[in-house]
């Protein structure tokens, strides 16, 4: 028997977890760790018979945690003749606890559409509920290679902090990260107990308890600088089922309260894009100055400055000043570049 692992093809985390779930459902008496590592897809390719499999065992321990977090009832069974021996523990998933109710069924087309909707998300951005649903859908049938629409669209979470924050929230961890607020020269470290990660106005926000401030705060994920790390020896309080709704209600209230009045040049890109947004807010075609609601003044200032002379901000004064500051920075950078060009040509 070979003592070297098989060549590793690219096996995704989802495929490995799915193979593990199927194997543990299929057994009545359970599988030992050695059985799993040597036979299940995603492990056996790296398993070394009579060799060191410490890293693979650590992977299995992490996968067990992930399976349980998905709500899958993973059981451990001790051998009566050898109690307390972890090497001989057997793992199984009771089939009756994992099956769908008998009165729920899907046609082949319905399964394919549900799986397409679930696989739109990539890069670990699925919520625990969505990952559990996808695993159950796979168990119901339909191979991964089945054609659905020729290709599956993908939605990517651009903010690198999304996944570690979601995991920290699932595991009741307190996290620490550097956060750069507009106008500040350097980021400040925040220590936060995450309560919800929500999307508002096409941007992701973290709603949590700032432990240093002793109050809830909302953080824009795009302003988190660097890695999100877990704070050891601290456990976050229960967030409650309504934390996400509370976060969205707070953001909605902020959006409603913040009002900007602008003028745009007719027939320009700004008139089309911003006019459509104002029309959606008012429920009718806008006339005269456009009224826009916004959540974050600096984000709106960045957007309006991008339209250049097509936009004139009438109010509030803080937004007008912020747009002007950005336009002046562009002008100064352009003048600096024009000054350097003749110097570089002579050098």
Explain this structure.
It contains eleven helices and eleven strands. The chain has a five-stranded antiparallel beta sheet. Helix 5 runs antiparallel to helix 6 and helix 10 packs across helix 11. The protein is elongated and about 80 Å long. It is an alpha+beta fold and 347 residues long. The protein folds into four domains: 86 residues, Arc Repressor Mutant, subunit A (Orthogonal Bundle); 56 residues, no CATH class; 70 residues, Roll (SH3 type barrels), CATH 2.30.30; 79 residues, no CATH class. This is WYL domain-containing protein. It holds the Pfam family WYL. InterPro entries: CBASS_pafABC_assoc_protein (IPR051534), WCX_dom (IPR057727), WYL_dom (IPR026881).
Question: In a few lines, what is going on in this structure?
Answer:
It comes from Cryobacterium zhongshanensis. 41% of the residues lie in helices and 20% in strands.
The main pleated sheet reads as:
5 strands, antiparallel
Percent of residues in helices comes to 40-55%
Q: What is the chain-wise order of helices and strands?
A: HEHHEEHHHHEEEEEHEHEHEH
**Tally the helices: what do you get?**
11
Number of domains: 4
- The CATH topology of the largest domain is given as Arc Repressor Mutant, subunit A
What is the typical, i.e. mean, pLDDT?
77
